[in-house]
Design goal:
alpha+beta; Aminopeptidase; three-stranded antiparallel β-sheet; elongated
Length: 65
């Protein structure tokens, strides 16, 4: 992830990086938060997994900071 952010920062036309993480995946969400990503919304029922649906947490990081 550090390499991805480093590459993104080298592209002056890129201002932010966005990602989604499956709601309930605390390890991944915690990693992204430690890297400076912040949550800006939750998409309910975003992905079908078998006979149930899971939500996606939308996160972003401002590359100018």
């Amino acid at each position: 992830m550090c390499s991805v952010l480093e590459h993104a920062r080298s592209r002056p036309e890129l201002l932010v990086v966005q990602l989604t993480v499956t709601q309930g995946n605390a390890a991944a969400q915690g990693l992204y938060e430690r890297m400076g990503f912040v949550t800006f919304g939750v998409e309910p029922l975003a992905v079908a997994v078998g006979s149930r649906f899971v939500s996606k947490v939308h996160m972003w990081k401002d590359l100018r900071e």
